[in-house]
């Protein structure tokens, strides 16, 4: 089931497995994932898998029922499930090819100050080297000159992926 949160984001609710249901308390969340719609799945993986090391767990093409769940009567949806390294958090990239003349895809150009603007925050080690690798790969930065911002908790910088999603690289302070 898909529902919208107060900011308009889609939240997908799925039935847990029998084992998860048996071991969980009523209303308990038993899994988590982040879904991002991308223009080109393989291109998105250049950053997330190639540069940031997200392993691809699986890839599948949606059937007609899944297309209908996403409001489409035609087209194609390929989903690529990855995992954020060092965590169990799943990130699923949804790559739609629309065949429905009533739907025209429009890319968002997010700004950090936009209410509900998505961003990923990744805690990293070796921030300066990651900034250079990201810059060399041709990605843009929201942070002026790709210079990290220093705060008591550490340093951080905002990169922008190929689909305009903000990806924050945060390096904790050494004393943490």
Task: Please mark out the parts with pLDDT under 50 across 5 or more consecutive residues, or reply none.
Answer: none
What's the CATH C level of the largest domain?
Alpha Beta
Mean pLDDT: 87
The quaternary state of the protein chains shown equals: single chain
Any idea what the radius of gyration is? 18 Å
CATH homologous superfamily placement of the largest domain: 2,3-Dihydroxybiphenyl 1,2-Dioxygenase, domain 1
How much helix, percentage-wise, in residues? Answer: 10-25%
Number of domains: 2
The appropriate CATH architecture of the largest domain is: Roll
CATH fold name of the largest domain? 2,3-Dihydroxybiphenyl 1,2-Dioxygenase, domain 1
Give the H and E element order.
Answer: EEHEHEHEEEHEEEE
Distance between the termini: 40 Å
Structural class: alpha+beta
Shape: globular
- Our count of helices gives 4
Counting DSSP E segments of at least 2 residues, the number of strands comes to 11
Estimate what percentage of residues fall within beta strands. Answer: 25-35%
Q: What profile does the largest beta sheet have?
A: 5 strands, mixed
């Amino acid at each position: 089931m898909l529902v919208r949160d107060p900011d308009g984001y889609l939240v997908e609710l799925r039935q847990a497995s029998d084992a998860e249901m048996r071991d969980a308390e009523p209303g308990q969340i038993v899994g988590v994932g982040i879904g991002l719609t991308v223009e080109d799945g393989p291109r998105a993986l250049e950053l997330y898998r190639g540069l940031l090391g997200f392993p691809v767990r699986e890839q599948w093409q949606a059937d007609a029922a899944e297309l209908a769940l996403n409001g489409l009567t035609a087209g194609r949806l390929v989903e690529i499930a990855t995992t954020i390294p060092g965590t169990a958090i799943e990130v699923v990239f949804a790559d739609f090819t629309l065949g429905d003349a009533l739907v025209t895809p429009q890319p968002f150009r997010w700004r950090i100050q936009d209410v509900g603007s998505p961003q990923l925050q990744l805690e990293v080690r070796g921030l300066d080297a990651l900034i250079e690798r990201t810059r060399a790969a041709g990605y843009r930065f929201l942070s002026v000159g790709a210079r990290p911002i220093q705060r008591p908790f550490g340093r951080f910088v905002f990169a922008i992926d190929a689909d305009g999603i903000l990806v924050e690289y945060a390096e904790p302070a050494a004393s943490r």
